[in-house]
Amino acid sequence: MIVVENLHKTYSTGLGRKGKKGKDNGNGKGDGDRNSNRNGDVKALNGVTFRVNKGEIHGIIGPDGAGKSTLFRILTSLLLPDEGPSKVTVAGYDVVRDFREIRQIIGYMPGRFSLYQDLTVEENLNFFATLFNTTVKENYHVIKDIYGQIEPFKDRRAGALSGGMKQKLALSCALVHRPTVLFLDEPTTGVDPVSRQEFWEILDRLSEQGITILVSTAYMDEANRCTRISLMQAGRFMATDTPKGITESYDELLWSVEGERMPALLAELRAHPDVKTAFAFGDNHHVTVKERLSVDALREYLTGKGFNEVRVTPIEPTVEDAFMKASMEVLNGNE
Amino acid sequence: MKQFIAFVNKEFRHILRDRRTMLIILGIPVVQILLFGFAINTEVKDLHVALYAPSPNGFTNGITERLHQSEYFTFRAELDDPIKMEESMRKGNLDMMVLFDTESEAVQLIINSSDPNRGSIAATYAMAVIGGYQQELAGITRMPFQIEVENRMIYNPEMKSAYMFVPGIMGLVLMLICTMMTSVSIVREKERGTMEVLLASPLKQGTMVFAKTVPYLALSLVNFTSILLLSYYVLGVPIQGSLGTLTLISVLYIFLSLAFGLLISTLVRNQINAVIISAISVILPGLLLSGMIFPIVNMPQILQWLSHIVPTRWYIDIVRKVMIQGLGWAVIWKETAILIGMSLLLVGSSILNIKSRLE
Question: What region, left, alpha or beta, does residue B76 occupy, with left being phi > 0 and alpha being psi -120 to 50 degrees?
């Protein structure tokens, strides 16, 4: 359904780093640190390659500024990719040449709420249905699951909805024409955990109906709900696999360390010669170590440094661990 | 077509739900007409005059009497010597002193020209009165021949300034509202991110921009009507020519302004820039180079040339000819052709500039 080979995208700012960048981004977030050359051009995508099959939910996992929104805008034909030997198609249509066809069959939910706040829920939905030459009635079965939840508020203005309801309305509007491919750019950012859960259940049902979904998120825990995921950092895909494949290919010794005075503990861990990496991870620290270090040795070492009641336990890696490892490799590779 | 109608509906809802903006749009022409009509008055009346005649005789009495008959002058009898007069003039309470020299039968007029317009009009009135008196005297003392000057002011016999500014306000307000509102409403879609969703849909960009112009065309026709009604019934400005011609020309001018708004919207990225650029590019030339306030023939040559590219100039010209002078197509075809040409140019360049992508 989606084929991307060797995709590059460079923003030419002309004015250096400060210039047009913020405006191009358009969603209120900075683009973070990206590779920029002498002319102040910013490389937002750097040789991205991946493929999404029909009916899959493909997750793009990466922090703010990784280039996720740029990727979405190219796939939805809103931005042009850099010229060069690349191939970017959606449902067999080229994003540059066949942009009119692409716009008939895709549903797109941008990273920022992009509906009319002064129109009511129902007016928004009807408007987008008409834009795609259809009616709400005709495709009600597609949006029933999700629109049903906000239908009691159909006369309320979209601007007066809560964050979760806004996202449901936006998804309804993106779905109302029964798209073949659905692009969701950070649909759950700023949404409460219950609504997030519901949102993903709806995505599962859509994918069962054969709709292909590309979804980006900065929440690592959502990665496990995708068929396959790509880890993205600084305009590059570091890995693409099933969530299970990603964690299984993790080949480091990974321990969780808990104790008192966590910030000091983290600094102490990073100073240890046999500790490769150490990151704060919720209420514990995740550390990767060299093989010659043992759990007991590390605990004794920390106790010796004055940390009491330290617990060190080997753990299974999560997607986030895989992400941290991969992005460390990218950073080291860049140096 | 359904898309187009749905879009027009949506635009009308945006406007109707934004009460404050709608009030401003519909209120601007009313306020402007009333302001120009009542508060700003360029007609000069009620000139304060003081006379000083140390030894009155037939000559001074004759002139005094005739000055008193003029409706333009208000006499200040309490100022009976030049020192008091001068003091009053310095305070700005006196417009003119008339000082007689009975020995040489001379009159001196001292005029307060701190407002040059008022000053020169006071002088003209006074000279006319004195000149008239002299002619009377000449008639008595037998002259070989006599020149009689009779003037008749046509088109605006009462010299009402409303005749001047009503066409000007029409030109300014219609263009300002159309240009600003169209450009702002398109740029707002970019700024609020809704443009992204619109672009990622089958909607053609041309459909979108033309749908955007429809509600503003309607609003502008409301404004056009309210300006005409106010100027006819409140200010007493007649519509000498054909109302149909006037309406047709105004629709053309509104269309031109909408196209200009579209062009601006393709060039700027946020609403503030859209407002600033439309305000500067409409108000400044509209006020200064259109002939609304300052006559174009009095301008330096280079500004006269520059005024040719200001659409408001041509529109005001046409409105004056049709509305005030009652002329028809035979006289205004050239100006109309210029407006049509400008519209096509603006529509063409904005269509070329409309982007089907975000960059």
Answer: beta
